Amino acid sequence: MTDKVVKSEAEWRAQLTPEQYAVTRQKATERPFSGQYEQVWAKGTYHCVACGQELFDSDAKFDAGCGWPSFSVAANPDAIAEEEDRSHFMRRVEVLCSRCESHLGHVFDDGPAPTGLRYCINSLALKLEKKEG
After folding, report:
1. Is 66 annotated as a binding-site member?
2. Structural domains in the chain (count)
3. Which end of the chain is more exposed for a tag (fewer CB within 10 A), N or C?
4. Residues near 92 by Cβ (< 8 Å), separated by ≥ 6?
5. Structural domain contains residue 107
6. What single string gives the DSSP state of each residue in 25-37?
7. What does UniProt list as catalytic (predicted)?
8. Is 120 in the active site?
9. In whole angstroms, what is the distance from residue 109 CA to residue 119 CA?
10. In a domain, 3, yes or no
11. Which helix (H) or strand (E) holds 108?
């Protein structure tokens, strides 16, 4: 496991855009169908925008029709942390970057086989590194 990234709120604010900070550090959610990666199908690897940890591969991305980039499996299970989220009068499973504890989105059990999972992730929490070729 990679070393934890710990920064002060001032350091996070200086590094991230206000929108990225709101999502990753304050657990905000971008509007559905508004994110830059929602309909991007380029080959590559999605990394945490805050710390750079590899989170998802483009091969696991699918169109769930929910308005956010969706993935069926993490690139490395150790890169993802999960916590119970009871906000907004719902019970959900929040997905966090295991390295810097940035809020990424939520995971649901209505995804495609073989995992049956749908990682519903905010574009603002991601940075795509495209593969050449």
Report:
1. no
2. 1
3. C
4. 84, 85, 86, 106, 108
5. yes
6. TT---PPTT-STT
7. 120
8. yes
9. 9
10. no
11. strand 103-108
48-60 burial: b if 16+ Cβ within 10 Å, else e? bbbbebbbbbbeb
User: Which tokens in the block code for residue 26?
Assistant: 């304050």
Instruction: Name the strand (E) or helix (H) holding 19.
Output: helix 18-24
Within-domain flag for 4: no
Q: Which of 16, 50, 120, 124 is catalytic?
A: 120
Q: What is the pLDDT of residue 6?
A: 93
- Give the pLDDT score at 132: 79
Q: Looking at residue 88, what is its pLDDT? A: 65
Q: Cβ of 4: how many Cβ atoms within 10 Å?
A: 10
Strands 92-97 vs 80-85: parallel, antiparallel or unpaired: antiparallel
Q: What is the pLDDT of residue 91?
A: 81
**pLDDT for res 68:** 97
| Domain containing residue 62: CATH number | 2.170.150.20
Q: What's the sign of the alpha-carbon dihedral 13, 18, 21, 27?
A: positive
Q: Please give the residue range of the domain that contains residue 78.
A: 9-130
Q: Is 51 annotated as a binding residue?
A: yes
* Regions of the chain with pLDDT less than 70: 1-2, 88-90, 133
Per the domain annotation, does 28 fall within a domain?
yes
